[in-house]
Amino acid sequence: MIWLGYAALYLGIHFLAYTLALRHLRLFAREPVIFLYQFLSFMFHPALLFWVAPRPEDLMAALLGSFALHGIYSLSFLELWALSEGSYSLRMLDKVERLGSEASQSALSDLEEIGASKKNARLESLVRLRLIEQRDGRYFRRPAGGMMAAVLRTLVWLVNIRDRIG
User: In terms of Cα–Cα distance, which of 45, 59, 60, 51 is closest to 7?
Assistant: First the structure.
């Protein structure tokens, strides 16, 4: 059972590396880099278990347990990262509170720029991932984008989300 302690220690170091150093790097502000950081860790962390599982019969339990622990950690990490990146609503709430009774629509107009930049960043990401393409100032879904949309709709259906994805 010592492997559980090592797995938790590894995940703690992984988290601290991001929290104390990596998050301050411009590269780590990009969604694909964050995903790759988690994915590579998930794929290569079991190599550590070969040194800490004392008997071969313990290795399978250590691998499965470690994958499960890392999966929970990675999903939580990615969800929290996405929530922190999606702080547009938080900015609106802070600004409305700061302005108080002065919070008219014209006073909040600068927030439109934030929304537009977030939309443009998302579109650029979809183009970079080759899920959509831009022609003549319009966007078109590529075949890979159609497959991704089908996969995501299936996941939404499987988890029984009541709100439909447009």
Answer: 45
Residue 135 located in a structural domain: no
Q: Is the pLDDT of residue 140 over 90?
A: yes
Would residue 136 count as lying in a domain?
no
In a domain, 35, yes or no: yes
Any domain includes 151:
no
Domain count, the chain: 1
Structure tokens at 35: 């995903």
Nearest Cα neighbor of 85 from 25, 29, 20, 165 is 29
Instruction: Quote the domain boundaries for residue 41.
Output: 2-85
Dist. CA 152–CA 158, nearest whole Å: 10
Specify the 3-state DSSP secondary structure of 161: coil
With 70 as the cut, is the pLDDT of residue 164 above it?
no
Q: What is the DSSP string of 68-102?
A: HHHHHHHHHHHHHHHHHHTTHHHHHHHHHHHHGGG
pLDDT tens, 73-132? 988 888 887 777 666 677 777 777 887 777 777 777 777 777 787 788 888 888 988 999
CA–CA dist 107, 53 (Å, integer): 61
**CA distances to 5, 82, 136 from 24, in Å:** 28, 16, 37
